[in-house]
Amino acid sequence: MDPSPGGLGAVSGPARLAGPDEGLSAQELALATRNHGLPLEALRYDVTPPGLHYVLVHYDIPDTAPDTWRLTVGGRVLRPLDLDLPGLRARPAVTRRVTLECAGNGRALLGPRPVSQPWLVEAVGTAEWTGVPLAALLAEAGPAEDAVEAVFTGADHGVERGVEQDYRRSLPLATAADPAREVLVAYAMNGAPLPPQHGSPLRLVVPGWYGMAHVKWLREVTLTATPYTGFQQTAAYRLRQEPGDEGEPVTLIAPRALMAPPGFPDFMSRARVVRPGPVPLTGRAWSGHGPVVRVEVSEDGGAAWTDAELVRDPAHPWAWAAWRTTWTATPGLRHLAVRATDATGRVQPLAPPWNRGGFANNLVQRVEVLCAPAPTAPPRPPAA
Amino acid sequence: MDPSPGGLGAVSGPARLAGPDEGLSAQELALATRNHGLPLEALRYDVTPPGLHYVLVHYDIPDTAPDTWRLTVGGRVLRPLDLDLPGLRARPAVTRRVTLECAGNGRALLGPRPVSQPWLVEAVGTAEWTGVPLAALLAEAGPAEDAVEAVFTGADHGVERGVEQDYRRSLPLATAADPAREVLVAYAMNGAPLPPQHGSPLRLVVPGWYGMAHVKWLREVTLTATPYTGFQQTAAYRLRQEPGDEGEPVTLIAPRALMAPPGFPDFMSRARVVRPGPVPLTGRAWSGHGPVVRVEVSEDGGAAWTDAELVRDPAHPWAWAAWRTTWTATPGLRHLAVRATDATGRVQPLAPPWNRGGFANNLVQRVEVLCAPAPTAPPRPPAA
């Protein structure tokens, strides 16, 4: 069966895996040049400044008009809502610091490599999101007795594997309406209106879930009496070994620790250079399944591990924790690694967990560091 | 000769060209995931919102402290300056709208491909920069009679092809001190303090020049009696056919027009889909050599060209111009192209101008568009 009505198959192919020696394709590069990760030195900021937070946009950033924007809450509800931005801003607001990670983070480290947005480890960021609790809006609308899911529709429109669509995802109603999950309809990021690429003027924020659930440019919430089976729910974002598998849905963020690479980089290889002696190592760690309870660092590529100091801020349970330790560097090429364990006992793996979509690969981060003495002559200043 | 004192060659190799069938390497991908281009739909904004403007950082974004930041103006001057931010902000300020483009834009479209940051066409952005005219600071410091260049030093530190360095570039004094060139020491972007990735707290802005001249995290201006011959001036950013060539320096931005791709995209191929009938085509065009005087659009991949309407804003001579036209789309796979001509007669080429560094490749942009009728059934909304 041709899945592409209107001949969309000419520009919209099926999912595929890269060949054994296939370098990154022009199509993957086109995605990598528009979307971007967190430069890892930006792990230094508790809250990621705009422009450094990762961005993944499926289609185009839509040309939205905040002044005329409407959010509807309908479907299986008793009192449908039709809200504008002033109406949302007039409701009680909360601000939550949330670490957000793309479900495809780590994909480009897999072999064979699923061909899609080619993230290494940097598709993450932490922001302060301000908005109205979704639970409050749903209580106002009054879910019908038979409602089981909330379906969220964004304004971004495109084609994917031959299927033309608005971006659309669902949550179980039990999650969407749970005050403890703190799902937000957010209109501000770090105290300012949402930037275009983060969903202006409204987006969903689902603490603890991978990014695909945080629907941007949100215009419609629809409660349904049956589970939603659209493209982004059942074709994409499933953990599959074979194309025909039903697959498990991608949901909560797997634990991950990242290191702010120490020293200074080589431009091209991004390998690091440090001087011999004590080197502070710092970074962040997070999990959507529960608090991170342990971060370990390896100085020998993952053979031996020692605990780092972990600093969690109880005021921000949905945000990454900080970690730090000191490494005594000795001359030579070194291979650092870091891994997180969360309160549910989940530990980052040393071998990547493979699936056809390249989702949730929380393989430990490895950082190549050359420890070299300082040059005997310092870098030459310009001759005056 | 080993160019890498301290053994830096272990992580810092020489420049190279990709092999004939070599896909993008892991190192190029690591650059592409940290740096990012302008998503082309963001050409719709006269001034690019933060986070959508292109970013290219050679080393790490440094951890700067605006409160203690100093800018020195020294070397061959009569009255050396040592300025803090309040001191700079107390001086007469100007705001200029400037289009900034990376010298490596277009590199990944070259064959053979120089291995470096792999831009396609999107390494551009336009911002409103506020700061102190460099000409005023230089007049205050008083250039010595023998001064010929101004050397600018940033706070970003790293290794490149075995050479450890702070990022450093020079301008001829005649350019740096020319009030008409309007070189700025900028402390604000779009009305807000500079974001970390754009040079917080200070950067140079050199209207009309490629990005390598706009030194970020600026901490030192040094006037010299001889031309500066450091790495970024004489090893990098030269137009060379062979490794040993002296090469021409990269300076002013070559003309380029870009189209905001019409219709909507396929997620993976980024090809566009439009409906049959009139389709508005819009975009931007710029040149560092002079005003853009003509933009032409081709509907047949570059065989025939027709003029687009060009809208220049005389209030913003350093910023891109807007252009627009209407295309009557008919069903099938179409290949659009656009090209700019500037007042000096420079026209974008149909074949890429190749050099070993991959600089200034202003090859015309080509956009693949599938014109397809609307599906007979609209996209299915969620069943309530």
UniProtKB/TrEMBL annotation, chains A, B:
This is Sulfite oxidase. InterPro entries: Ig_E-set (IPR014756), MoCF_OxRdtse_dimer (IPR005066), Mopterin_OxRdtase_euk (IPR008335), OxRdtase_Mopterin-bd_dom (IPR000572), OxRdtase_Mopterin-bd_sf (IPR036374). PANTHER family: SULFITE OXIDASE, MITOCHONDRIAL, SULFITE REDUCTASE. Its cofactor is Mo-molybdopterin. Keywords: Metal-binding, Molybdenum, Oxidoreductase. It comes from Streptomyces omiyaensis. Pfam families: Mo-co_dimer (PF03404), Oxidored_molyb (PF00174). The keyword Transferase does not apply. Residues 277-369 form the Moybdenum cofactor oxidoreductase dimerisation domain. Residues 58-231 form the Oxidoreductase molybdopterin-binding domain. CDD domains: SO_family_Moco_dimer (cd02110). It comes from the Bacteria. Transmembrane segments: none annotated.
